[in-house]
Amino acid sequence: MKGIREISGKVFPLDRDHVDTDQIIPKQFLKKIDRQGFGQFLFFHWRYDDDGELRKDFHLDDARYAGASIIVGGENFGCGSSREHAPWALQDFGFEVVIAPSFADIFYNNCLKNGILPINLEHTEVETLLEKGLRADYSLTVNLEQQTVHDGEGFESTFEIDPYWKQMLLNGWDEISITLSYEEQIEQYEKTRQE
Amino acid sequence: MKPKNIIEKLWDEHVVYQESGKPDLLYIDLHLVHEVTSPQAFEGLRLKDRSVRRPDLTFATMDHNVPTVNRTVINDEVAKTQMTRLDENCKEFGIELADIHHPDQGIVHVIGPELGLTQPGKTIVCGDSHTSTHGAFGALAFGIGTSEVEHVLATQTLWQSKPKTLQIEVTGKLGFGVTAKDLILGIIAKFGVGAGSGHVIEFTGEAIRNLTMEERMTVCNMSIEAGAKAGIISPDETTFDYLKGKRHVPDGDQFQTAVEKWKSFSSDEEASYDKTLQINGSEIEPQVTWGTNPSMGISISSHVPSPDQFTKKSEQEAVQRALAYMDLEGGEKIDEVPIDFVFIGSCTNSRLSDLRAAAEVVKGRKVKDNVTALVVPGSQSVKSQAEEEGLHEIFLDAGFEWRESGCSMCLAMNDDIVPPGKRCASTSNRNFEGRQGNGSRTHLVSPAMAAAAAIEGRFTDVREMMTVVH
Ligand code: SF4
Hints:
Chain A is α/β, with parallel strands linked by helices. Chain A has helices at residues 21-24, 44-47, 85-93, 105-113, 123-132, 163-171, 175-180, 183-194; strands spanning 6-9, 11-13, 70-72, 97-100, 117-120, 140-143, 148-150, 156-158. By secondary structure, chain B is an alpha/beta fold. Chain B is built from 16 helices and 19 strands. Iron/sulfur cluster (SF4) binds next to loops of chain B.
């Protein structure tokens, strides 16, 4: 996994609460046995109608959002099914950062484990970004090291992230190799439990 | 010693390594695996030449995309690939598997308890959000993603930050004809889908104590729908009676020793929580959801809400969108809404007692014309027990279909799909857009309410049908 430091990019504003993982990646696309190629199915039923035509009321494919790397959503983002295909799809589509006022736990963790940065901002801040993000020329910068979000035109904020995960993301570390360095402790634990 | 609640006790019991500024390294006692969220995890192990640390603490089955009609021919090539791949992975890494021809096969959250793999005091994970079901036994059980599945396979541990604790106390007694499903839907309708966010919920109170194990599973199953990481209920005699004699539960003297240990995990009387919510169980009526998330529920005697009943603009919009998707009008009486499909199944409500409750309503009656009704037992074992009791005949006589076990129409990954625009009374746990098939409209209800809807062809207060029978 590659490390994340600073990400600057276009914003895709998704002004909906409770965006669930069934919407992010519908179940008919879960049958693959590798991790690649899910981006084309991202928000499938919101993007396409039954005839496979792009829907007019959903704007992910609008030219003004082309190449967006930051998605901004509403409350309880990523709720529902634990499918990791949801962050895989977001990432495969090109998103590296998800900003929302609150996240569902499993989704939040799944993002971290895949090198996507989930950011909690205040309600009012998210509303500002949802509004500003509608502009084709709008761009946002996220700095993980300094834990800041700013747009160079007045919007500025900071965010919290667990220091452990911050390190992991900055360095792009593989969590399993780290844990395996604690093998002794794990063995010790297993021994005491057996007694 | 400071009094502790069960969540704190189980956490402390399982910490392998702790260091400030880091999550805790938590030991996992049981890892359940299924075909959809595991292939990429095994692939990851293989790529790095890693093994499964404790195959003996790992158990696999196939449930999400298995066919429920004919098990000998699987037409869906992709689903077949996933099943074959799980089979190969289990062989390669030495993991016990209940495949689709195995008598133990079933929905992973139904068979864990049935086989006695689920026990008080354990940490249990599975690549599936409804792992919270196992919390009914006083286990700390939560869903994980595929990267975490790989992590647990390789290390038998997980890095986890200690969750906050939320007590939901259910006072009073549930009324006549009100089930555990109505209780949990009522809780979510009252407190919202974000109520448990960042927390593990412990359910306490008289109404919870009076629930059977199967009912407790229904409640804990849907704690994820209240946004919680997990739901849990302190173990008691009901728990121990259920477990006695189950295959993986210790027997003889060892059972007593186990029970003593299990008892020690229950929350101390003086235990405190980060947050406490209360609800009076006697005030809950049979529930039906009308919208597209599980908190959009009302009692059967009520009307579908209109957007103008809400103050926040975002809520109004959400209600508006849900009503449009569900093709309902604000103000409509929910018991006048006709249905096309009935699904009795899923890890929320497909255990023997659920099928009995539905059969009691169905007995001697007929499914309304134009309604397609399915019963999908949670496991092959539930299926065979139900058949011994003759429940399948009651369902078949009434015009229900009687299927092999699996997730089926709960998420419609196999052929069991609700067509676009059709309306389904479902005993499952999610009413998200398209969950039961693209364009499908899902209303969550209890098994008895689903049975009643099948007979009447619309939602109806099952209590009225029950009084007639008795
Ligand atoms: S029955 Fe439904 S909710 Fe339960 S495990 Fe299967 S798909 Fe998930």
